[in-house]
Write a structure and sequence with these properties.
Layout lengths: L10 E3 L5 H6 L2 H12 L7 E4 L3 H6 L10 E4 L2 H9 L3 E4 L3 E3 L4 E3 L1 H7 L4 E7 L2 E3 L3 E4 L2 H12 L1 E7 L7 E3 L1 E4 L5 E4 L5 H6 L2 E3 L2
Parallel strand pairs: 1-11, 2-3, 2-7, 3-4, 7-10, 10-13, 13-14
Antiparallel strand pairs: 5-6, 8-9, 9-12
Length: 198
């Protein structure tokens, strides 16, 4: 407003919770999103699976005999896929304690060697003004490179992530299909493909 400031309706997320806390939040919605996303994987796919709780749930819905190949930066993800007998590659780099994700320049450089048919990414915030965001610069760098190297990108975001913004943007809204439980924002729906699974 003229001569003053207005309060933005968006919520800023500055800190990231650890994996245990994240798993406890919106788990029913995350599982429905994960099930839908797992069904998108074909046997001849070369898939990037981002570290995150919703992508971790995805592994529960991938068939044990799936012949797709997977690349991940999630330690828990790699172990879980290995136990299922899936073909999995793990990125090298810095291990982030809170999310158990491998991040950083080394990981981003190794992504350049791959060309993914599909990538499944998590996001801390989804907003009209900032696109897809995360609090960590190193994690954002890795996600941004993954988007560039993927034929199709899905961002898995339950409805609690909408109208939230974190410190670093890793992609505009039109760079990925958003898979969510529900989205009531009509402006958002005009900017990208949104699949509601609830």
């Amino acid at each position: 407003v003229h001569g003053g400031a207005t309060l933005n309706k968006q919520q800023f997320i500055s800190q990231e919770e650890n994996v245990s806390a994240k798993k406890a939040e919106h788990s029913d919605e995350k599982r429905k999103i994960a099930k839908y996303c797992a069904a998108q994987i074909q046997g001849d796919d070369f898939v990037y699976l981002d570290a995150g709780t919703t992508t971790l749930y995805m592994i529960d819905y991938i068939d044990d005999g799936c012949t797709a190949s997977f690349v991940t930066n999630g330690i828990s993800h790699a172990k879980k896929m290995c136990r299922k007998g899936l073909n999995v590659y793990v990125l090298g780099g810095k291990l982030k304690q809170t999310t158990e994700a491998i991040v950083g320049l080394m990981a981003a450089r190794s992504i350049h060697n791959f060309n993914f048919t599909k990538a499944f990414l998590g996001a801390n915030g989804v907003s009209l003004s900032s696109g897809f965001t995360t609090p960590d610069t190193e994690e954002a760098m890795l996600k941004a490179v993954t988007v560039e190297k993927s034929f199709v990108t899905y961002v898995l975001a339950d409805s609690s992530k909408f109208d939230k913004v974190s410190a670093v943007s890793f992609g505009s809204l039109d760079c990925a299909c958003i898979v969510t439980d529900k989205c009531s924002n009509s402006k958002l729906k005009k900017l990208t493909v949104i699949k509601e699974v609830l």
